Amino acid sequence: MHRTSVAEVLLTDVRRTAAPDVFEAAACWPRAHTTFPRDGSQRHSPLVLVETLRQLGLYVPLRFHGVPPAHRAIITDLHFRLVPASEPAPGPGATEVSCRTEVNGVRRAPNGSVTGLRLSAVFAARGVVFGWGGGGVRFVHRAGYAALRARGAADPAPRMPPAAHRPDTAALTVNHPQDAVLAEDGEGLLVAPADPLHPFLFDHPTDHVPGMVLLEAARQAVAYRSGGALARPCAGRLRAVRFTELAPSARVLCTRHHATCVFRVVQGGTPTAYGTLSYAQGVKRGPSSSH
Question: How many domains does the chain have?
Answer without folding.
Answer: 2
